[in-house]
Protein backbone atom coordinates (compact mmCIF):
# COMPACT_ATOMS: atom_id res chain seq x y z
CA UNK A 1 0.00 0.00 0.00
CA UNK A 2 2.80 2.43 0.92
CA UNK A 3 4.64 1.67 -2.31
CA UNK A 4 1.49 2.28 -4.34
CA UNK A 5 0.85 5.60 -2.61
CA UNK A 6 4.45 6.61 -3.18
CA UNK A 7 4.16 5.95 -6.93
CA UNK A 8 0.53 7.01 -7.35
CA UNK A 9 1.29 9.86 -9.74
CA UNK A 10 3.63 7.71 -11.84
CA UNK A 11 1.00 4.98 -12.05
CA UNK A 12 -1.73 7.49 -12.87
CA UNK A 13 0.33 8.94 -15.74
CA UNK A 14 1.02 5.47 -17.14
CA UNK A 15 -2.67 4.58 -16.92
CA UNK A 16 -3.74 7.82 -18.58
CA UNK A 17 -1.33 7.66 -21.53
CA UNK A 18 -2.23 3.99 -22.01
CA UNK A 19 -5.43 5.09 -23.76
CA UNK A 20 -3.40 6.74 -26.54
CA UNK A 21 -1.67 5.11 -29.52
CA UNK A 22 1.89 3.99 -28.80
CA UNK A 23 3.62 6.70 -30.94
CA UNK A 24 1.84 9.43 -28.97
CA UNK A 25 2.40 8.08 -25.47
CA UNK A 26 5.86 9.58 -24.84
CA UNK A 27 4.88 13.09 -25.95
CA UNK A 28 1.62 12.89 -23.97
CA UNK A 29 3.53 11.76 -20.87
CA UNK A 30 5.92 14.71 -21.15
CA UNK A 31 3.01 17.16 -21.56
CA UNK A 32 1.28 15.69 -18.50
CA UNK A 33 4.45 16.07 -16.42
CA UNK A 34 4.95 19.67 -17.58
CA UNK A 35 1.33 20.52 -16.74
CA UNK A 36 1.71 18.89 -13.31
CA UNK A 37 4.88 20.88 -12.56
CA UNK A 38 3.21 24.16 -13.53
CA UNK A 39 0.04 23.46 -11.53
CA UNK A 40 1.80 22.17 -8.40
CA UNK A 41 4.43 24.88 -8.13
CA UNK A 42 2.04 27.69 -9.06
CA UNK A 43 -0.18 26.43 -6.23
CA UNK A 44 2.82 26.39 -3.89
CA UNK A 45 3.59 29.94 -5.06
CA UNK A 46 0.11 31.10 -4.04
CA UNK A 47 0.45 29.29 -0.71
CA UNK A 48 3.90 30.80 -0.10
CA UNK A 49 2.63 34.33 -0.76
CA UNK A 50 -0.26 33.83 1.65
CA UNK A 51 2.07 32.36 4.28
CA UNK A 52 4.47 35.26 3.88
CA UNK A 53 1.80 37.95 4.18
CA UNK A 54 0.25 36.32 7.22
CA UNK A 55 3.60 35.46 8.78
CA UNK A 56 4.99 38.97 8.38
CA UNK A 57 1.72 40.37 9.69
CA UNK A 58 2.09 38.35 12.90
CA UNK A 59 5.75 39.36 13.25
CA UNK A 60 4.71 43.02 12.91
CA UNK A 61 1.77 42.67 15.31
CA UNK A 62 -0.96 42.93 12.67
CA UNK A 63 -3.41 40.49 11.13
CA UNK A 64 -2.39 40.23 7.49
CA UNK A 65 -4.95 39.13 4.85
CA UNK A 66 -8.20 38.12 6.58
CA UNK A 67 -11.05 39.43 4.41
CA UNK A 68 -11.14 37.46 1.15
CA UNK A 69 -12.44 33.98 1.90
CA UNK A 70 -12.22 32.10 5.21
CA UNK A 71 -9.21 33.39 7.16
CA UNK A 72 -8.10 35.22 4.00
CA UNK A 73 -7.14 32.05 2.11
CA UNK A 74 -8.57 33.38 -1.17
CA UNK A 75 -6.37 36.49 -1.13
CA UNK A 76 -3.97 35.05 -3.80
CA UNK A 77 -6.99 34.51 -6.09
CA UNK A 78 -8.06 38.13 -5.62
CA UNK A 79 -4.51 39.33 -6.29
CA UNK A 80 -4.34 37.26 -9.48
CA UNK A 81 -7.63 38.63 -10.77
CA UNK A 82 -6.54 42.18 -10.00
CA UNK A 83 -3.26 41.65 -11.88
CA UNK A 84 -5.15 40.29 -14.90
CA UNK A 85 -7.57 43.21 -15.20
CA UNK A 86 -5.14 45.97 -14.24
CA UNK A 87 -4.09 48.33 -17.02
CA UNK A 88 -0.81 47.48 -18.74
CA UNK A 89 1.20 50.69 -19.15
CA UNK A 90 4.24 50.71 -21.45
CA UNK A 91 6.44 53.85 -21.55
CA UNK A 92 6.31 55.65 -24.87
CA UNK A 93 10.09 55.40 -25.43
CA UNK A 94 10.36 51.80 -24.26
CA UNK A 95 11.24 48.94 -26.59
CA UNK A 96 7.80 47.30 -26.51
CA UNK A 97 8.92 43.87 -27.78
CA UNK A 98 11.81 43.44 -25.34
CA UNK A 99 9.69 44.99 -22.56
CA UNK A 100 7.11 42.26 -23.13
CA UNK A 101 9.59 39.38 -23.53
CA UNK A 102 11.57 40.08 -20.34
CA UNK A 103 9.05 38.72 -17.78
CA UNK A 104 8.08 35.87 -20.12
CA UNK A 105 11.72 34.82 -20.49
CA UNK A 106 12.19 34.95 -16.71
CA UNK A 107 9.24 32.65 -15.97
CA UNK A 108 10.05 30.19 -18.78
CA UNK A 109 13.71 29.75 -17.78
CA UNK A 110 12.83 29.33 -14.11
CA UNK A 111 10.26 26.63 -14.88
CA UNK A 112 12.74 24.81 -17.13
CA UNK A 113 14.95 24.23 -14.11
CA UNK A 114 12.23 22.01 -12.61
CA UNK A 115 12.74 19.52 -15.46
CA UNK A 116 15.73 17.97 -13.65
CA UNK A 117 14.53 18.21 -10.02
CA UNK A 118 13.54 14.81 -8.58
CA UNK A 119 10.37 15.68 -6.65
CA UNK A 120 9.93 12.06 -5.56
CA UNK A 121 11.13 8.52 -6.18
CA UNK A 122 11.03 7.96 -9.98
CA UNK A 123 9.46 11.41 -10.33
CA UNK A 124 11.78 13.50 -12.50
CA UNK A 125 10.87 14.84 -15.93
CA UNK A 126 14.36 14.49 -17.48
CA UNK A 127 16.97 12.31 -15.77
CA UNK A 128 20.09 13.63 -17.48
CA UNK A 129 23.65 12.88 -16.41
CA UNK A 130 24.45 16.60 -16.20
CA UNK A 131 21.24 17.70 -14.52
CA UNK A 132 22.99 20.02 -12.07
CA UNK A 133 24.72 21.87 -14.90
CA UNK A 134 21.40 22.23 -16.72
CA UNK A 135 19.78 23.69 -13.60
CA UNK A 136 22.53 26.30 -13.19
CA UNK A 137 22.42 27.11 -16.92
CA UNK A 138 18.71 27.87 -16.64
CA UNK A 139 19.34 29.93 -13.50
CA UNK A 140 22.00 31.98 -15.27
CA UNK A 141 19.54 32.75 -18.09
CA UNK A 142 17.39 34.75 -15.66
CA UNK A 143 20.07 37.46 -15.62
CA UNK A 144 19.40 38.09 -19.30
CA UNK A 145 15.71 38.72 -18.61
CA UNK A 146 16.61 41.12 -15.78
CA UNK A 147 18.86 43.10 -18.13
CA UNK A 148 16.14 43.05 -20.82
CA UNK A 149 13.68 44.56 -18.34
CA UNK A 150 16.02 47.33 -17.21
CA UNK A 151 17.31 48.25 -20.66
CA UNK A 152 13.99 48.14 -22.51
CA UNK A 153 12.21 50.42 -20.01
CA UNK A 154 14.31 53.45 -21.00
CA UNK A 155 14.36 54.48 -17.37
CA UNK A 156 17.54 55.30 -15.45
CA UNK A 157 16.18 53.81 -12.25
CA UNK A 158 15.30 50.58 -14.07
CA UNK A 159 18.72 50.38 -15.73
CA UNK A 160 20.51 51.03 -12.44
CA UNK A 161 18.37 48.43 -10.72
CA UNK A 162 19.09 45.84 -13.40
CA UNK A 163 22.84 46.49 -13.20
CA UNK A 164 22.78 46.10 -9.43
CA UNK A 165 20.73 42.92 -9.76
CA UNK A 166 23.08 41.40 -12.35
CA UNK A 167 26.18 42.23 -10.26
CA UNK A 168 24.56 40.62 -7.24
CA UNK A 169 23.30 37.56 -9.11
CA UNK A 170 26.65 36.87 -10.81
CA UNK A 171 28.57 37.29 -7.54
CA UNK A 172 26.42 34.91 -5.55
CA UNK A 173 25.87 32.50 -8.44
CA UNK A 174 29.60 31.76 -8.37
CA UNK A 175 29.36 31.00 -4.65
CA UNK A 176 26.17 28.96 -5.15
CA UNK A 177 27.76 26.83 -7.85
CA UNK A 178 31.01 26.23 -5.95
CA UNK A 179 29.13 25.24 -2.80
CA UNK A 180 27.41 22.55 -4.90
CA UNK A 181 30.71 21.21 -6.26
CA UNK A 182 31.51 19.66 -2.87
CA UNK A 183 28.41 17.47 -3.19
CA UNK A 184 29.41 16.44 -6.71
CA UNK A 185 32.88 15.47 -5.45
CA UNK A 186 31.43 13.12 -2.83
CA UNK A 187 28.49 11.74 -4.84
CA UNK A 188 30.59 11.34 -8.00
CA UNK A 189 27.73 12.42 -10.25
CA UNK A 190 26.06 15.51 -11.71
CA UNK A 191 22.73 13.68 -11.91
CA UNK A 192 20.35 14.95 -9.24
CA UNK A 193 18.52 11.59 -8.81
CA UNK A 194 21.91 9.88 -8.26
CA UNK A 195 22.81 12.51 -5.64
CA UNK A 196 19.56 11.80 -3.78
CA UNK A 197 20.14 8.05 -3.95
CA UNK A 198 23.62 8.52 -2.47
CA UNK A 199 21.97 10.09 0.62
CA UNK A 200 19.09 7.62 0.93
CA UNK A 201 20.98 5.17 3.16
CA UNK A 202 20.65 4.96 6.96
CA UNK A 203 22.76 4.07 9.96
CA UNK A 204 20.20 2.78 12.39
CA UNK A 205 17.38 5.31 12.06
CA UNK A 206 19.59 8.24 11.03
CA UNK A 207 20.08 9.24 7.37
CA UNK A 208 23.34 9.86 5.50
CA UNK A 209 22.41 13.39 4.49
CA UNK A 210 25.38 15.51 3.47
CA UNK A 211 24.31 18.36 5.77
CA UNK A 212 25.34 16.22 8.77
CA UNK A 213 28.99 16.15 7.67
CA UNK A 214 31.43 19.04 8.37
CA UNK A 215 31.98 19.96 4.72
CA UNK A 216 28.25 19.48 4.04
CA UNK A 217 27.19 21.76 6.89
CA UNK A 218 29.61 24.48 5.75
CA UNK A 219 28.49 24.10 2.13
CA UNK A 220 24.84 24.12 3.16
CA UNK A 221 25.26 27.35 5.16
CA UNK A 222 26.94 29.08 2.22
CA UNK A 223 24.33 27.66 -0.16
CA UNK A 224 21.49 29.08 1.95
CA UNK A 225 23.08 32.54 2.06
CA UNK A 226 23.88 32.53 -1.66
CA UNK A 227 20.41 31.28 -2.59
CA UNK A 228 18.86 34.08 -0.53
CA UNK A 229 20.93 36.62 -2.45
CA UNK A 230 20.36 34.90 -5.80
CA UNK A 231 16.58 35.17 -5.40
CA UNK A 232 16.77 38.82 -4.22
CA UNK A 233 15.28 38.02 -0.84
CA UNK A 234 15.81 40.10 2.29
CA UNK A 235 18.32 41.10 3.51
CA UNK A 236 19.74 40.94 -0.04
CA UNK A 237 16.82 42.64 -1.83
CA UNK A 238 18.88 45.61 -3.02
CA UNK A 239 17.73 45.38 -6.69
CA UNK A 240 14.30 46.39 -5.39
CA UNK A 241 15.55 49.04 -2.99
CA UNK A 242 12.58 51.42 -3.02
CA UNK A 243 14.45 54.01 -0.95
CA UNK A 244 17.04 54.50 -3.72
CA UNK A 245 15.81 53.15 -7.07
CA UNK A 246 11.99 53.04 -6.73
CA UNK A 247 11.29 49.39 -7.64
CA UNK A 248 14.45 48.38 -9.43
CA UNK A 249 14.37 46.77 -12.84
CA UNK A 250 10.56 46.46 -12.91
CA UNK A 251 9.81 50.10 -12.09
CA UNK A 252 8.03 50.52 -15.45
CA UNK A 253 6.04 47.30 -15.20
CA UNK A 254 2.39 47.05 -14.21
CA UNK A 255 -0.52 44.67 -14.51
CA UNK A 256 0.09 41.10 -15.54
CA UNK A 257 3.72 41.73 -16.59
CA UNK A 258 4.55 42.76 -13.04
CA UNK A 259 2.67 39.68 -11.81
CA UNK A 260 4.92 37.52 -14.01
CA UNK A 261 8.02 39.02 -12.37
CA UNK A 262 6.43 38.36 -8.99
CA UNK A 263 5.63 34.78 -10.01
CA UNK A 264 9.14 34.25 -11.40
CA UNK A 265 10.80 35.43 -8.20
CA UNK A 266 8.81 33.10 -5.97
CA UNK A 267 8.99 30.13 -8.34
CA UNK A 268 12.76 30.62 -8.50
CA UNK A 269 12.82 30.67 -4.71
CA UNK A 270 10.95 27.34 -4.68
CA UNK A 271 13.32 25.85 -7.28
CA UNK A 272 16.45 26.91 -5.38
CA UNK A 273 14.92 25.46 -2.22
CA UNK A 274 14.30 22.24 -4.15
CA UNK A 275 17.92 22.16 -5.32
CA UNK A 276 19.23 22.74 -1.79
CA UNK A 277 16.96 19.98 -0.53
CA UNK A 278 18.26 17.65 -3.23
CA UNK A 279 21.94 18.41 -2.62
CA UNK A 280 22.14 18.57 1.17
CA UNK A 281 18.88 17.37 2.77
CA UNK A 282 18.43 14.02 1.10
CA UNK A 283 15.89 15.14 -1.49
CA UNK A 284 12.78 13.00 -1.20
CA UNK A 285 14.24 10.65 1.44
CA UNK A 286 12.73 10.53 4.94
CA UNK A 287 14.57 12.09 7.92
CA UNK A 288 14.34 8.78 9.84
CA UNK A 289 14.23 5.24 8.49
CA UNK A 290 10.98 4.39 10.29
CA UNK A 291 9.21 7.18 8.35
CA UNK A 292 9.87 5.68 4.93
CA UNK A 293 6.22 4.62 4.68
CA UNK A 294 5.29 8.28 4.02
CA UNK A 295 5.33 9.03 0.25
CA UNK A 296 8.64 10.43 -0.99
CA UNK A 297 6.99 13.39 -2.74
CA UNK A 298 5.44 14.44 0.59
CA UNK A 299 8.90 14.74 2.12
CA UNK A 300 10.19 16.79 -0.82
CA UNK A 301 7.28 19.26 -0.65
CA UNK A 302 7.54 19.47 3.16
CA UNK A 303 11.26 20.30 3.03
CA UNK A 304 10.65 23.01 0.42
CA UNK A 305 7.95 24.62 2.57
CA UNK A 306 10.32 24.60 5.56
CA UNK A 307 12.79 26.56 3.37
CA UNK A 308 10.02 29.02 2.53
CA UNK A 309 9.22 29.50 6.22
CA UNK A 310 12.92 30.18 6.82
CA UNK A 311 12.99 32.81 4.04
CA UNK A 312 9.92 34.49 5.54
CA UNK A 313 11.46 34.47 8.99
CA UNK A 314 14.68 36.06 7.69
CA UNK A 315 12.72 38.73 5.81
CA UNK A 316 10.85 39.71 8.95
CA UNK A 317 14.01 39.74 11.08
CA UNK A 318 17.03 41.22 9.30
CA UNK A 319 17.44 44.74 7.86
CA UNK A 320 18.59 45.32 4.30
CA UNK A 321 22.35 45.36 3.64
CA UNK A 322 24.25 48.08 1.83
CA UNK A 323 25.55 47.38 -1.65
CA UNK A 324 29.19 47.43 -0.55
CA UNK A 325 28.46 45.06 2.34
CA UNK A 326 26.70 42.65 -0.01
CA UNK A 327 29.53 42.56 -2.56
CA UNK A 328 32.30 42.43 0.06
CA UNK A 329 30.67 39.47 1.76
CA UNK A 330 30.44 37.57 -1.53
CA UNK A 331 33.99 38.12 -2.77
CA UNK A 332 35.95 38.51 0.48
CA UNK A 333 34.33 35.90 2.71
CA UNK A 334 31.84 33.56 1.00
CA UNK A 335 33.98 32.74 -2.04
CA UNK A 336 37.27 32.11 -0.15
CA UNK A 337 35.45 30.06 2.48
CA UNK A 338 33.79 27.97 -0.25
CA UNK A 339 37.20 27.27 -1.81
CA UNK A 340 38.51 26.17 1.60
CA UNK A 341 35.47 23.92 1.91
CA UNK A 342 36.31 22.29 -1.43
CA UNK A 343 39.80 21.47 -0.17
CA UNK A 344 38.30 20.08 3.04
CA UNK A 345 35.94 17.93 0.97
CA UNK A 346 38.90 16.46 -0.92
CA UNK A 347 40.69 15.84 2.38
CA UNK A 348 37.55 14.14 3.74
CA UNK A 349 37.69 11.60 0.91
CA UNK A 350 41.46 11.15 1.23
CA UNK A 351 41.42 10.41 4.98
CA UNK A 352 38.94 7.57 4.61
CA UNK A 353 36.60 6.20 7.25
CA UNK A 354 37.11 6.97 10.93
CA UNK A 355 36.92 9.70 13.52
CA UNK A 356 40.16 11.40 12.37
CA UNK A 357 38.60 13.05 9.34
CA UNK A 358 35.76 14.45 11.44
CA UNK A 359 38.22 16.13 13.80
CA UNK A 360 40.61 17.40 11.11
CA UNK A 361 37.92 18.72 8.73
CA UNK A 362 35.93 20.38 11.51
CA UNK A 363 39.08 22.05 12.88
CA UNK A 364 40.12 23.40 9.47
CA UNK A 365 36.67 24.81 8.70
CA UNK A 366 36.34 26.34 12.17
CA UNK A 367 39.76 27.96 11.94
CA UNK A 368 39.05 29.32 8.45
CA UNK A 369 35.71 30.75 9.58
CA UNK A 370 37.20 32.48 12.62
CA UNK A 371 40.31 33.71 10.81
CA UNK A 372 38.52 35.23 7.80
CA UNK A 373 35.76 36.68 9.95
CA UNK A 374 38.14 38.26 12.44
CA UNK A 375 40.43 39.67 9.76
CA UNK A 376 37.57 41.29 7.91
CA UNK A 377 36.13 42.78 11.11
CA UNK A 378 39.56 44.04 12.17
CA UNK A 379 40.19 45.72 8.81
CA UNK A 380 36.90 47.57 8.97
CA UNK A 381 37.08 48.24 12.74
CA UNK A 382 33.79 46.45 13.29
CA UNK A 383 33.09 45.82 16.94
CA UNK A 384 30.13 44.53 18.92
CA UNK A 385 26.93 46.37 18.02
CA UNK A 386 25.67 48.70 20.75
CA UNK A 387 22.37 50.51 21.07
CA UNK A 388 21.86 53.95 22.55
CA UNK A 389 18.50 55.52 23.28
CA UNK A 390 17.52 59.17 23.40
CA UNK A 391 17.24 60.54 26.92
Describe this structure in words.
The chain has 391 residues and is an all-alpha fold. The chain has one domain (85-379). The chain has helices at 2-6, 8-17, 22-59, 75-85, 96-112, 131-152, 156-187, 192-198, 214-230, 242-245, 255-280, 296-315, 323-351, 355-379, and strands at residues 202-203, 206-207. The protein has a two-stranded antiparallel sheet with strand order 1-2. Strand 1 (202-203) and strand 2 form a beta hairpin.
Write the layout of secondary structure elements.
Elements: H1 2-6, H2 8-17, H3 22-59, H4 75-85, H5 96-112, H6 131-152, H7 156-187, H8 192-198, E1 202-203, E2 206-207, H9 214-230, H10 242-245, H11 255-280, H12 296-315, H13 323-351, H14 355-379
Antiparallel strand pairs: 1-2
Helix pairs in contact: 3-11, 3-12, 4-11, 5-6, 5-11, 6-7, 7-9, 7-13, 9-11, 9-13, 11-12, 13-14
Number of domains: 1
Structural class: mainly alpha
> What level of helicity do the residues show?
55-70%
**How are helices and strands ordered from N to C?**
HHHHHHHHEEHHHHHH
Contiguous helical run count: 14
Q: Terminal Cα separation, in Å?
A: 68 Å
Low-confidence blocks of residues = none
Radius of gyration of CA atoms, rounded to a whole number: 22 Å
Give me the count of strands: 2
How do the strands of the widest beta sheet line up side by side? 1-2
Q: Please tell me what the overall shape is.
A: globular
Strand % is under 5%
Amino acid sequence: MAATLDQIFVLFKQWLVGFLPAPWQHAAGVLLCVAAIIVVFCTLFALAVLMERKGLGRMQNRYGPNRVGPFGILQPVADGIKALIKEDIVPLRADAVVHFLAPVALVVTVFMGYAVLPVGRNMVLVDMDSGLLFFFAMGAATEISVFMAGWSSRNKYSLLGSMRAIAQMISYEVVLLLSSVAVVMIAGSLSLPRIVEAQSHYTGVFPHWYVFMPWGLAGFAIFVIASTAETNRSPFDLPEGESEIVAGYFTEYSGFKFALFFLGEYVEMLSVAGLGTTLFLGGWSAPFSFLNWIPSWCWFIAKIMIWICFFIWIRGTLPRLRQDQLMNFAWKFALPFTLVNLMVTALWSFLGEGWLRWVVCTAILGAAFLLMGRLEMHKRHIGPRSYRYAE
